[in-house]
Structure formats: C-alpha cells, structure tokens
Amino acid sequence: MIYSLDKINEMADGDEDFINSVISVFLEEVPQDLEGLEHALNTSNYEQVYQLAHKIKPNVDLLGMEQTRAAALEIETLGKSEANMSEIQNIFPSLKKDIDQVVSELRKDFNL
Fold first, then answer.
1. Can you give the pTM of this predicted structure?
2. What is the mean pLDDT of residues 19-37?
3. CA-to-CA separations, 59 to 20, 22, 42, 56, 96, in angstroms, rounded
4. Which bin fits 84, alpha (ψ -120 to 50), beta or left (φ > 0)?
C-alpha cells in the first residue's frame, strides 16, 4: 500500500464522514489536476505546471505519499523557476503512476 490514512485519522478523530469526505475530494480533484498538469507539460505552460503541482502536493501529503509529494515538490519548484521542461517531463511519469495507483486502491478500499 503506497498510501496511509494516519494523518487523516489523526485529523478526523474517529469521524468516518470526515475521512470519506477527504477521500472523495482526493478522488475528484487530484486526477483532474493531474490531467491538467499533463496538458500544461505538453504545452510548456510553466505557470500551470507550478500551480497544479502546488495544488497536488498537499493532497498526496495528506495520504502519506512521501515519494509522490517529493515528486510534486520537484515539479512545482522546476515549474516556478521555468527550468528545463524535459527535466519536469522525466519526473511526471512516476508522479502519475503513483497517483493512478492510489486512486485505484482508494476506489477499491472505499467502494467508491
């Protein structure tokens, strides 16, 4: 399992509705943001790359996805500094793979 509910459980203090709400928001927003990020990469839109990576980062952090958070942070930093786009495109596949896997696992684990 590449995600952890520890942070969410700590915040929820036993509130199952809160946990389900956080998971639902993750499943709604993060795949859309990831799609937008991929489009921004394909069109070399550094500002969008920065903004979407910045938006994805706390969501994956909330699920304890440290490796994915690190990739999002690196993409965010490179986007902000308008670094070499191919460098960002080298990092993106691992971010996408991890998020796709977690989305799939969450849907299965929470019957969503």
1. 0.92
2. 96
3. 14, 9, 23, 5, 14
4. beta
Banded pLDDT at 108 (limits 50, 70, 90): very high
Candidates 105, 84, 30; CA nearest to 60 is 30
Rounded to whole angstroms, how far apart are CA atoms 51 and 76?
7
What torsion, rounded to 10 degrees, do the Cα atoms 3, 92, 28, 13 define? 30
Helix (H/G/I), strand (E/B), else coil: 17: helix
Q: Which two tokens stand for residue 60?
A: 């994956």
Among 84, 26, 73, residue whose Cα is nearest residue 50: 73
CA–CA distances in Å: residue 86 to residues 32, 64, 75: 22, 27, 11
